[in-house]
Amino acid sequence: RCPITLAERLFVVNGWSVSVLA
Question: Rounded to whole angstroms, how far apart are CA atoms 10 and 16?
């Protein structure tokens, strides 16, 4: 099992926000 780390979660959220704003 590979739990998602806080850094990875923030990275995913950042990418999602940028793609939505773009």
Answer: 10
User: Phi/psi of residue 4, each to 5°?
Assistant: -80, 125
Could you tell me which residues come within 8 angstroms of residue 4 by beta carbon, excluding any fewer than 6 positions away?
12
Is it the case that residue 14 has pLDDT exceeding 80?
yes
Count the neighbouring beta carbons within 10 Å of the beta carbon of residue 4: 9
Task: Pick 3 or 22 by higher pLDDT.
Answer: 3
> Across 1-22, where does the E strand assignment appear?
none
Give residue 4's region: left, alpha or beta (phi > 0; psi -120 to 50): beta
